[in-house]
Amino acid sequence: MSKYIDNISLAIETAREKLASASSAAELENARVSLIGRNGAFTALGKDLASLPSEERPDAGKALNAAKEEVLALINVLSAKIATASNLGEKERAEDLTLPGRKWKIGRKHPVNIVIDDCVRIFRRMGFIVAEGPEIETVFHNFDALNTPYDHPSRDTADTFYFADGRLLRTQTSPVQIRVMEKQEPPVRIVAPGRCFRRDTPDATHSANFHQIEGLYVDKDVSMADLKSVLLQFARELMGQDVNIRLRPHFFPFTEPSVEYDFSCVMCSGKGCRICKHSGWLEISGAGMVNPAVFSNIGYDPEKWSGFAFGMGIERIAMIRYKITDIRLLYENDGRFLNQFVNIH
Ligand SMILES: [Zn+2]
Questions:
Q1: Residue 251's domain spans which residues?
Q2: What CATH number is attached to the domain comprising 301?
Q3: Measured in angstroms, how far is the CA atom of residue 225 from the centroid of ligand 1?
Q4: What separation in Å is there between the alpha carbon of 240 and the centre of ligand 1?
């Protein structure tokens, strides 16, 4: 009896020492296995219990259980202590003021987005709101409703990406105007920025996907003078207060009369340089008064309403503004190129 109790006392002493020297979760686990694991010291004592005389067994059993409970309690306390210590360690490391700071990489807006945002901001101030439409369009919205003749080359499969079901990737943002007019009675005053697609072979000035922003204003008694004043104000807000515009007669099926409009060259202030091919003007895009046939197509009364529409290529504006000579730079995602554009707004 006393021999067995002595063994328990000895085992407890050893256990206290082992546990006291454990300073990590792994060391604690090793100690636990050596004490109460399958081949542990206390497990062996449990087996020895069976060989004791039966009258000694109850007291010996009680003493062994008490010892095991003490060991378990010690393990629990230590385990909590070690966990707290390792958490504290993390926290202390995070707050170590002697460590050099971590540099956060801040993303930048793509030049195409900078130009879109600037255009939208200017038109918003003039009372236009932003409208959006799908990039996969119907032939009706992309061509028919816009009064595009059935034999117009832009409808050709060589120019436009068609799907097997007859739909297409929009070739312009103009279908957004049709969708807005289908849903809404005049007055309408929208700009529609977005991505467009054409079967163009990429070169310095062409890309199979590009961006446009299109404007539409429909109300009573809208005139060409309104169109010109909006374009002039836009040009000056975007490019500088000394910029002028000019309108040249042109033809588009969507508008009648139609014009192409130019900005005076921002590089040479209209004196003539290589960029403007010595003309003093930079061709921007097309505009005009909405063709009454378009109003009829979507159910507006052409006798009652009039309106103007204009469009422009975002890449074209970006290339002029940032003096970019190759459109492909805008799509190659080269960080050395893109990191030069800091959005100042
Ligand atoms: Zn010039």
A1: 111-338
A2: 3.30.930.10
A3: 26
A4: 15
pTM of the model as a whole: 0.68
For ligand 1, the distance from its centroid to the CA atom of residue 212, given in whole angstroms, is 23
- pLDDT tens digits, the chain, 345 residues: what are they? 578 888 888 888 988 888 888 888 888 899 889 888 888 888 888 888 888 888 888 888 898 998 889 889 989 988 888 887 777 655 555 667 777 888 887 778 899 999 999 999 999 999 999 999 999 999 999 999 988 989 888 898 889 999 999 999 999 999 999 999 999 999 999 999 999 999 988 888 889 999 999 999 999 999 999 999 999 999 999 999 999 999 999 998 899 999 999 999 988 888 888 888 899 999 999 999 999 999 998 899 999 999 999 999 999 999 988 888 889 999 988 888 988 887 544
Instruction: Quote the ligand 1 centre to 244 CA distance (angstroms).
Output: 13
> Ligand 1: distance of its center to the CA of 282 in Å?
8
At a CB cut-off of 8 Å and minimum separation 6, what does 61 contact? Answer: 49
* Shared domain check, 280 and 168: yes
- Residue 269 token pair: 């202030």
The answer to whether position 101 is within a domain reads: no
Burial level of 49, CB count in 10 A (0-12/13-18/19+)?
A: middle
Provide the domain count of the chain: 2
* Whether residues 196 and 146 fall in one domain: yes
Do residue 207 and residue 129 come from a single domain? yes
Ligand 1 centroid – CA 76 distance (Å):
81
HEC assignment per residue over 185-246? CCCEEEEEEEEEECCCCCCCCCCCEEEEEEEEEEECCCCHHHHHHHHHHHHHHHHCCCCCEE
Three-state secondary structure call for residue 160: coil
Same domain, 141 and 173: yes
